[in-house]
Design goal:
By secondary structure, the protein is α/β, with parallel strands linked by helices. It has a single domain, classed as Ribonuclease Z/Hydroxyacylglutathione hydrolase-like (Metallo-beta-lactamase, Chain A), CATH 3.60.15.10. Helix content is 24%, strand content 26%. The protein has a seven-stranded mixed beta sheet. Helix 5 links the parallel strand 5 and strand 6. The protein is globular. Bound molecules: zinc ion. The site of zinc ion has 4 residues, from loops.
Length: 275
């Protein structure tokens, strides 16, 4: 089994979205009207090249975010608080083809950590894969409720018929809810609530190293170690960050959040979380 990363362009958000700050002003107002942009950060998706078939974790973003009318600019978040830089060749489909993987035929499963657009923007590349989404996340992201919450359900492919899952109370090390993805149990989905209530992370064990495909549990490893939740998450973020840290104390863990600029170095050098 091999773990590969694919960078599908870059995104820029407000500093107040990256980490929560103290005070009385509601956090969402700080995210929208904060005057400091953070640096551009990568948007990663992952490929697990497993003998039972290729598994993709998240699908990255689409270049259409730069096409006028694609993003709902009436929505304050898209009007004020996010910028994308994605070129057509940055999308996950063309990048997989370059790696010798045909997204139409060779990808058995696509697992979504959650459905925010920078994770779901490449779904259209996988018409023939089983697409696995948490049942409650799918509900929260669907329809008008989803659009108001910042999801783009009207941009999902019309053919989308995901396999909806509800992770069972099946303990996996420090995580209360989990489900195996592969028969050998080397690829697991675990519940990591916080950034969104029903966020999933994927853990793949390769030669004794645990690759932790973290979605947006935190934007960086630094934020994980400092137990700094992001600026839009729920109260459960900190418990999730603690579970990840406890997991990494038992198992050598390579932490792979979707937007951490240090990911390439971490993967190349097999740098585990250390204390
Ligand atoms: Zn997100």
């Amino acid at each position: 089994m091999k773990i590969l990363k694919i960078q599908t362009g870059k995104v820029r958000i407000k500093e107040n979205q990256i980490s929560k700050s103290k005070g009385y002003v509601p956090q969402m107002l700080k995210v929208l009207f904060g005057n400091k942009w953070a640096d551009w950060v990568p948007i990663y998706a992952w490929v697990i090249d497993h003998e039972e078939g290729v598994i993709v974790v998240d699908t990255g973003e689409t270049y259409k975010t730069s096409v006028r009318g694609y993003l709902p600019k009436w929505h304050p978040y898209y009007a004020l608080a996010v910028d994308f830089d994605v070129k057509p060749e940055d999308e996950i489909g063309p990048q997989l083809l370059k790696m010798g993987i045909n997204p139409d035929k060779d990808v058995k499963k696509v697992i979504m950590t959650h459905l925010h657009t920078d994770h779901a923007g490449g779904l259209h590349h996988f018409p023939n894969s089983e697409i696995i989404i948490d049942k409650n996340e799918y509900q929260n992201a669907s329809g008008l409720k989803g659009i108001l919450a910042g999801y783009l359900p009207h941009r999902w492919p019309k053919w989308l018929k995901p396999t909806l899952i509800d992770l069972p109370n099946n303990r996996y090390f420090t995580f209360n809810k989990s489900m195996p993805v592969t028969r050998d149990g080397k690829v697991m989905m675990v519940a990591t609530p916080g950034h969104v209530e029903n966020h999933i992370s994927v853990i793949a064990e390769v030669d004794g190293l645990y690759y932790f495909m973290a979605g947006d549990t935190s934007y960086t490893e630094k934020n994980l170690l400092e137990l700094t939740p992001d600026g839009i998450g729920t109260k459960r973020s900190i418990d999730t960050l603690k579970s990840i840290i406890s997991f990494s104390k038992i198992n050598p863990t390579i932490y792979l959040p979707s937007h951490d600029p240090i990911v390439p170095q971490r993967m190349a050098n097999k740098e585990i979380i250390s204390f």
